[in-house]
Amino acid sequence: MLDAAWAGLVALGTPTAIFFTVVGIVYGIVIGLLPGLGGIVAMALLLPFTWGMDFAAAMSLLIGAHIATIWGSSATSILFRVPGAAKSVALIFDGYPMTQRGEASRALGASAMAAVLGGVYGAIFLAISIPITRPVMMALGPAEYLMLALWGLTIIATFSEGSLLKGMTAACLGVLTAFIGMDVVTATPRFTFDSVTLMDGISFPVAMIGLFAVSEMMKLMIKGGTLIERTVTEENSSVWQGVRDACSHWGLVIRSSLLGLWIGVLPGIGQSVGSIATYAQALRTSKHPETFGKGNVEGVIAPDASLGANEGGGLLPTLALGIPGGEGMAILLIAFIGLGVVPGPQMLTHNLDLVYTLVWVVAIASIVTGIFAILLTPILARVPTLNPNVIVPLVLAVCVVGAYSDRQEVSDVIVAGVFGVLGYIMDKYRYSRANFVIGMVLALLIERNLHISVSLYGDWFIFQRPVALGMLFLIIFTTAWPFYKNWKRDKELKKVAQAEHGSAS
Amino acid sequence: MSRRWQENIVAAGFLLLFVGVLLETMNYGPRASMVPNIIAGIGAALMLAQLILQNVRSQDSLQVDLLELISARATGDEEALPEHMQQSLKEAKAKKAGADAEQPTGMFRPGSLPRELMAIGVVCCAIGLFFLIGPIPTMFVFTFSYLTLSGHFGVMRAFLVSSVFTLFVYGLFHAWLRIDMDKGLFDLGFGLW
């Protein structure tokens, strides 16, 4: 175990890995500062660059960028009251009031330091959890993995933003998209329509570039105008003041990190929930709840610590089960596939050094992001005032070349364009794109394990595997729970309405 | 066209897609068609339900929002916030959904159908250029044209930005990552050495 941890750290000590950590973080901060371009877009654009890289360098680049976008989007919430991503929404409550009274630097410093501490706690949690998780994973067979994949699919579809039916439909579309191409089990070409190009299937990175990057550029073109507008206020605080604030509120940081970790571990429950829940927790436990919403630094520290820790929590189901803990983790899974690394139990047995590399990447990237955040804040705060007319052509051109460079197939450029339009339609009509990706990632896992289970245990394999049967009941329960909650709530509301109507008459 | 009609067209499109998948899988063997059949069947049922519900119920009752579901209804976190913060949260969510965007009038107003078609046209132009002249010349021509036509930069500044950007991408993808660039229909000789 210690050997693997040491090997993981050594892999990150190469000049290439260090270089890509820095590149990823600077790039991630810039992308995070641009509203609408969150961690997924950042990672989708980076995917083509990771081909041929060694694992440590590729992960440094991707995870570094993803962690940095979290702080970048927090910064726009604090500075402009515009969350760079939904997960940073809780930071507008106290971050922006602090900016209004000239304490933006303090708020940004507190935010950066809280995220660093949260990230380090997340990495420690991940490192501690691996030895515990490994024997559990070893006891599971294909039937249980099938149930785990189904559980990931239904949880993510159930807890998606927007319409429940649309969320599940998006997941179904993603699953079917993954089936395009040659079926490896039966050697049947599926949904190829005699096209040689489609025999290889739809490339994950190309689909990601289209769904997220191209569609976001389309949105910018359609929306027009500047990304955000702000009025400059006179600054009267320092970054170090904020850093001290985060360190002095260590209890709040630990509580918030633990909550963020737990939310990260549960697949499908996004970071936006984590930050709101953490903010509410900070409000309930604060000695000065009356100052919340008026610029209390605790209201900045709590959500950022939670967001920082969420990354480590999200990596656990991704690595141990092969089920993405969130949409960013789904892209990371695609990167694993591109690098020839298979996540899941094999990763915890055969590639433990790679797992520890990821643990170190989370910790190091959190710390380096914090340092960069403190140094770059005054300069990068101006980035969101960039006009989309500059961003759109540059990003779109990179998307086109990036889509081509994945397999050096010209047809992939068309695929990226088609997925761009599909992504725009899905976003406009609230069919979750994240669910689509997760469906796409889990599809082959579901099909492969289903076939293996049927071959090993017969058609009624579920009744021969008690753990799998228990998991099936859990799937049914977690899927039905929101419906039950809604039904119960509606019933209670009707009762109240009837009582009021009765007393009025 | 009303929002409900647009939603109906999109849902009907997805429903047709699922039905198409079900028909297509009839040509495959039982093992190859098993999972796609189940998924397409579920998808078709979901879309059918969506189509019915969105036409007989108000649109609000269809939305099961993540924040409401988890934070407010399950744990009460959102409700625990003071009223002014709940208001801020609502505003932020509305802003995210683009519901509070003050849109100017005119054919090419932000969010209008002509503007959407224009955006699709721009993407098609980038892809078309790629086919005709290959990736590297596309980088330059596309960025230069966009920057100039959008009126954000003057010709000289657009030329400079496009040139530097093209060189950067060429160096990154071709010189460093060793990716063979496509010739394009009209072989201009870029990226093939």
Descriptors:
heterodimer; A: about 500 residues; two-stranded antiparallel ribbon; 21 helices; about 75% helix; about 0% strand; globular; B: mainly alpha; extended
Concise synopsis of the structure shown:
Chain A is mainly alpha-helical. Chain A has a domain at 2-140 and 202-222 and 237-428.
Order of helices and strands of chain A: HHHHHHHHEEHHHHHHHHHHHHH
Strand content of chain B: under 5%
Helix fraction of chain A, binned, reads over 70%
Give the strand tally of chain A: 2
End-to-end separation of chain B in angstroms reads 52 Å
Distance between the termini of chain A: 73 Å
Assembly state (oligomeric): heterodimer
Instruction: Please give the domain count of chain B.
Output: 3
Question: What is the radius of gyration of chain B?
Answer: 25 Å
Please state the overall shape of chain A, judged from the principal axes of the Cα atoms.
globular
- Note the run of SSEs of chain B as H and E: HHHHHHHH
Mean pLDDT of chain B: 76
Bulk shape of chain B: extended
Helices of chain B, by number, come to 8
Give the low-pLDDT segments of chain B: 61-77, 99-103
Helical content of chain B, roughly?
Answer: over 70%
The class by helix and strand makeup of chain B works out as mainly alpha
Strand fraction of chain A: under 5%
Count of runs of 4 or more consecutive helical residues of chain A: 21
Provide structural commentary.
The complex is a heterodimer of chains A (505) and B (193). Chain A has 505 residues and is mostly helical. Chain A is 74% helix and 1% strand. Chain A contains 21 helices and two strands. In chain A, a hairpin with a 6-residue loop joins strand 1 and strand 2 (189-190). In chain A, helix 3 packs across helix 10 (204-223) and helix 10 runs antiparallel to helix 18. Chain B has helices at residues 3-24, 30-56, 66-75, 77-80, 83-97, 113-133, 135-149, 155-176. In chain B, helix 1 (3-24) packs antiparallel against helix 2 (30-56), helix 6 runs antiparallel to helix 7 and helix 7 (135-149) runs antiparallel to helix 8 (155-176). With 193 residues, chain B is mostly helical.
